[in-house]
Structure formats: structure tokens, C-alpha cells
Write a structure and sequence with these properties.
The protein is mostly helical and 203 residues long. The chain has 9 helices and no strands. Keywords: DNA-binding, Transcription, Transcription regulation.
């Protein structure tokens, strides 16, 4: 009897895990293709093939679900970047190139980050947690930039550098008339030029 009860609990827990994963995957897909305001909990439920009420057993609201999806997508990026700079010289160019490559190849995170930055005021109480992720990115770039610039220039340079990388992606990622590989190579060339421009300001 006890074994059957354990199996029943295990199956129920497995079902909950599957439901949660399906909801998150549906949220990632929708949040990366539409603005935050355009994605309703009902639409996510339909996409995940669950009832709208079931979502609230796992997530408090739309903001909580967006935060969870964003954190999952960005954690892989942060892991890649941490591994990239560990024990390496020329960290700034390596870091910038790896960031460009990752964001270029991972449309979900690219679009979610773009929507988050454009609609920051709509994310309410979870904004601070999302900003913590951006701050971790800034911290990585700050340490790489510190090798080339005095500390009193770092704050604004980090912001400019990060904005410039994302600006290159937005401008050239889907540039018509060229192949995807050509667009990526062009962005990487401009990224290299950006890095060398900053290095010329070295103290």
C-alpha cells in the first residue's frame, strides 16, 4: 500500500513538474515574440495547453512568470560569459564577442531583453530582480573595462558599451540582403572596432 502511495505522489509531482515546464516554455515563446502588454495569462495557458486557473498554482501573476522565464533564459548567457573571462587575457574583446554571438544565436533572450528594456515601467515589483540580472552583466563588463580605463570613467563607459553592443544587434541582426552569417561577421567586426576604440583611451 505504501509503495502505491509513493508511486501516486511521484506521478503527481512529475505531472506538476511537466505542467510548470510547459507553462514556462510557452511564456518564453510568447514573451520573445510579443511585448509584455500583449501577452496575457490566458494566451500563455492556451499555448501551454493548460487551464488559465492552473497557471496561478505555479505563478502569482504575469510579472512573476516573465521574471521566471527571463531568469532561465539569461542564466545560460551569464554562465557562458563567466566561463569566457575566467583566467583569460584580452577579456574585453572576448567578453564582447561572446555576448554578441550568444545573443545573435538565441532569439528568445534577445527579444525578451529588448522588450524588457523598452517596457521597463510595466514590470512593476519584479523589476528589481530583473535589474539584478542586468547588473550582473554590467559587473562582468566593468571588470573587463577596468583593465583599460580609470575607475572614474567606468560607470558611464559600461552603460555606453552595453548599449552599443545591443545597438549593433538591433541594427544589423536582421539586415536584409545579406546572409545571417554575413550579418554576424559584420557585427563582430564592428564590435572589435568598438573595443579597440575604447582601448585607445587607456590610462
Amino acid at each position: 500500500m505504501e509503495t502505491k502511495e509513493v508511486q501516486h505522489v511521484s506521478k503527481r509531482q512529475q505531472k506538476k513538474t511537466i505542467n510548470r515546464e510547459n507553462i514556462i516554455n510557452a511564456a518564453i515563446e510568447l514573451f520573445s515574440s510579443k511585448s509584455f502588454a500583449e501577452v496575457s495569462m490566458r494566451a500563455i495557458a492556451k499555448h501551454a495547453n493548460v487551464s488559465p486557473g492552473l497557471i496561478y498554482q505555479y505563478f502569482d501573476d504575469q510579472q512573476h512568470l516573465f521574471m521566471t522565464a527571463f531568469k532561465i533564459e539569461s542564466s545560460s548567457l551569464l554562465n557562458v560569459l563567466h566561463q569566457t573571462v575566467e583566467g583569460q587575457d584580452h577579456q574585453l574583446e572576448l567578453l564582447a564577442t561572446k555576448y554578441i554571438e550568444y545573443m545573435y544565436m538565441h532569439d528568445n533572450l534577445y527579444h525578451m531583453m529588448t522588450y524588457f528594456m523598452l517596457e521597463n515601467e510595466q514590470h512593476g515589483n519584479v523589476s528589481q530582480e530583473l535589474h539584478d540580472i542586468i547588473d550582473e552583466l554590467f559587473s562582468l563588463f566593468r571588470e573587463a573595462l577596468r583593465q583599460h580605463l580609470p575607475d572614474d570613467h567606468l560607470k558611464h563607459t559600461v552603460q555606453l558599451f552595453f548599449a552599443s553592443l545591443n545597438g549593433l544587434l538591433i541594427t544589423y541582426k536582421n539586415l536584409p540582403g545579406r546572409s545571417s552569417d554575413s550579418n554576424l561577421q559584420h557585427i563582430k567586426q564592428l564590435t572589435s572596432l568598438l573595443v579597440h576604440t575604447i582601448k585607445r583611451q587607456e590610462k
